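ok so i was messing around last nite and threw this chain in just to see what happens. nothing serious, just curious
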Amino acid sequence: MINYAVILSAGLGTRFLPYTKAVPKPMLPIIDTPTLEFIIKEAIECNIQNIIVVVGHNAEVIKKHFTKNKYLDYDKISKDIKDKLCFSDNINLTFVTQHILDGTANAILSAKDIVGKNDFLVMNGDELFFKYHPYDKCPSKQLIDLFNMSDAHIIGAQRVSKHDASRLGVIIGKKLDERTTQLTKIVEKPNEIDIVDPLVNLGRYVVKNNIFKFLENVKPNKNGEYALTDALVDCARYDNVLCYDFVGKRYDIGNKFSYMQAFFDISMNDEQFGKDFESYVLKYIKDNNLQITQ
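result:
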């Protein structure tokens, strides 16, 4: 049973300067909700009660968001707003600081004492995933279900265009079925012409506790960073590591255009203002004589 999640949210967010000079990247809002909050809610949807957030600079801003505000009169706030403010009250939410930002491996190691001997979910704090349909399982739940059936480390993955794959980590391995591949290695940012199957690793993982010994011994990559994916490739020599092509819409919140897409899509589907926003967009297209192309 997976009852621990480690969320990696220590990045500086330099692509969003000047905003991130004062405000941490995990607090980038989509309408009225920080991106980190969406990720924590995904973990809660998986019935995970112990959530560890690895933070970096300006961590107090993040901690303050998840602490009761003494200046708000909660008795005078509507139930809907109060539920949104108090959604994390029934979980164990812990923050640990990654003082040296030298990769995801050491970020996870900073949570080792809290995780203890438990297996756990790893979530990148700058990647959002949303369901295509309300009845779909969230991506993390899909990975946890496979973990429970297979007793293997699980890497969340999706097939993308070869152009997009050339900027990510492409998975090489033995295809077991339509959605599952047994990991052999991960090739970072390969030449597009060399890509046979554009299956890439994305920001969700379910790992067994023995991953810590591989994290502790992983070598720095060409950028001088210690990466979880490199530890998983090392682990695959001794243990079963599966890559699962999960169902869900991905947004890279570290990328400005993808962030804009997330903001737009969520605005279009907003329960209160979605219809008004859609009318505004259609009017804008008409007033500016824009052509809609497929």
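not much to say yet. Residues 4-254 form a domain with the Spore Coat Polysaccharide Biosynthesis Protein SpsA; Chain A fold (CATH 3.90.550.10).
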